[in-house]
Amino acid sequence: MATLAPTIEQTGSGIRRSIALANWNLSRALIVTKREVQDMFRDWRIIAPTLVLTLIFPTIANWGAGRMIGFMSNYGANLIGERLVPFLLMVVGFFPISFSLIIALESFVGEKERHSLEPLLATPLTNTQLYMAKVLSSTLPPIVGSLLGVTVYLVGVKINIHWLPPMSLLIQIILMNLVQAFVMVSAAVVVSSQTTSVRAANLLASFIIIPMSFLIQAEAYIMFWAQYDVLWMIIAALLVVNFLLIRMGVRIFNREEMLGNEIDEFDVIGGVKSWWRQVLARRTDGTRRSAWRWYREEVLTPLVKLWPALIIVAVVMAAGYFTGLRYANIYRIPSEAFDTHDWLERFQFALNRASFGSIRGVLLVIFQNVRVLAIASVAAVFSFGVLALMVLMLPLGLAGYLSATMVSAGIDPVEAWTAILPHSLIEIPAAIIAGAAALRLGATIIAPPPGKTLGQAWIEALADATRLWLTVILPLLIVAGCIEVFITPYLFGLVAGR
Amino acid sequence: MIETVNLTKHFDDFVAVQDVNITVNPGEVLALLGPNGAGKTTTVRMLTSIFTPTSGSARVAGFDIVSQAEDVRARVGVLTEGHGLYLRMRGREYLDFFGQLYDLPAERRHTAPQGLAERFGLSDALDRRIGEYSKGMRQKLALVRSMLHNPPVLMLDEPTSAMDPLSSRQVRNAILDLRGDGRTVLICTHNLPEAEELSDRIAIIRRGQIIALGTSMELKSRLLGPPLLEIRLATPLNGLVDDLSGMVEIDSTGHNWLRYRTLEPQTINPQVVRRLTGLGIEMVTLSEVPQSLEDVYLRVVGEGEPALSGVTEETE
Hints:
The complex is a heterodimer of chains A (498) and B (316).
Chain A: H1 8-11, H2 15-40, H3 44-74, H4 78-105, H5 107-113, H6 117-121, H7 127-161, H8 167-194, H9 198-204, H10 206-225, H11 229-252, H12 255-260, H13 268-280, H14 291-305, H15 307-330, H16 343-353, H17 359-382, H18 386-408, H19 413-418, H20 421-446, H21 454-496
Chain B: E1 2-11, E2 14-20, E3 23-24, E4 29-33, H1 40-47, E5 55-60, E6 63-64, H2 69-74, E7 76-79, H3 91-101, H4 106-119, H5 135-147, E8 153-157, H6 165-180, E9 184-188, H7 192-198, E10 201-206, E11 209-214, H8 216-224, E12 228-233, H9 240-244, E13 249-253, E14 257-261, H10 265-279, E15 283-288, H11 293-301
Parallel strand pairs in B: 4-9, 4-10, 7-8, 8-9
Antiparallel strand pairs in B: 1-2, 1-3, 1-5, 5-6, 10-11, 12-14, 12-15, 13-14
Helix pairs in contact in B: 3-4, 8-11
């Protein structure tokens, strides 16, 4: 039947097959998209604000820009007026885009509330096609509105003040609005597919609106500073976010979850119980095993399975260190800034003040390391793992920068390494393992394993991370803390006092 | 056809469906009966590849419901519990939309809705907005949608709900025609006379388990016992019960009537009549007491009734 994907015999393999599959997915998604767009434009509650945002608002903005330029020129502040015109170009393009969020938020959950979702889910449409259909139907009308708004505004400014933006700026603004629309819609469709009521979806929309409003403010500053090249970076970053959101949306799209859950249930106690049960990882049949066997099966085996994440974190941390080294050569601290007189004594004094050489110092070091790794783990959850990598890169970057700076200031490299290496041999593996576990926490949100809900997969990842923290990371950090406080200063003293 | 093997669905700790084993052959209608929350909708959602079973397996129209989900959905027509109609669309547009999703050629997207709509008396309404339809018309439109792509398997949830008697009759006839065409039909309903009329076999589900499966007659016989017969006399019984108790199993008695059960009415009833005639008792009527499917249903799903063994074997 033609409702099914083209076979490999029909398409051949490789790129041709990928293109054929993409075309097939798109053509089937567009059936739903077309219906939804038509349905949208039968509703005056959608038509009226769309018209206001696409036609009337750009006209007002255009009139306002003309008045502002006239007003500013009276006071010789032409620059503000000149910067305002391209800024408003971005704003009139974005306003209709903001509308996409509302449409996307009710895409799945609205259909669920109207009971029209099940017949759609019972058709041969694949998850990808349904997701694409919803994203496209929520994005296309606002994008058309955005382009119309930009056109109306440009025609107005051309007539009023005889100004047209450079082509590169126009492309940047259009691209930025497009990407912003897709980011908001992709995120909103994810929200819509995971909630059980339009009300809940609207409440969760804050997680999209707040970051976007920060982004728009940043873009406003950039536009007023006329640093238009930075817009390319924003577009690139948004494209990455968009890719991650779409991947996440397709992976966590679950027909069963959509129809099965009738109420939003946030079962904290159940979640905590499930997490703790998985942390303990007792056998379900009630049989016991030795501590070593438990450690091998529930700690070492999951740790080995984390190898891709371990490699990524290790590479990123190494990259951080070498970036620090490189920047030490670019942004040199003048050697006269270093007061090397009696530095060893002063260094020793600083260590004593930080309670090095005592248990309190050990606790302080452990607390500091735990804090950094915990922040990386929490940040990972909200950034698909990206911020965890950045948090871990930073200390390594600083270590690289400082060690290169110390060497360039005339300090013996052996001394510099002795100040870092002994405890780092334990601390860095602990950080790599914690980083890998954090990366999994973030990545699970984008792509939970098949057959598991997002919640189940995330609690499992959290339980695995907790087990690793309790049985590997914390013990390593305790050992590293003891070495840093008692052994490293001693070795450093021996080397430095040669 | 539909074939399930130990089909099971759990939602966390809640067992929605447990070890369901049914086979529905082409040209057969199976009615799935059960109280609200018994697991009917979950079963249908698994069989339409919307829900994934926790364990067990099923094949629908020859395809596995998990690994060949799209193939299954392409070959099943579903009438869902809620109509799920887009109220701003016109009936014709709506059917055309689903026709496209099932990849029907343009000509068939034009002819199939028209033919089905005529069959259900809906053709005049196809160009009106669905929002203007009555409840019964919406139900019919949803039914037309489920039959649009000529599916070999149909799963219909309450097919005649909200319909007037004439519309119900049209729908029942349509279902019987589908059976005649060799389609496999699974209907979920609370309308027991309808289930009895339409279905070849009946499955009663309670707390996720099939607790009775068989033809209407088989279920009545197994669950309500042998046929119940009633004799009405022109005079009081006057010791007749003792006289007949050696011949038949007396079920109940009244002033001038008695009810008895027998596994062989064709043999026993003439003997009873002869006995009464021999005693000179004037008999007014001898008739079978109708035993309804409702009695079976209430007996099976009644309070605290344990799962009945021996009535769930497949009758191939």
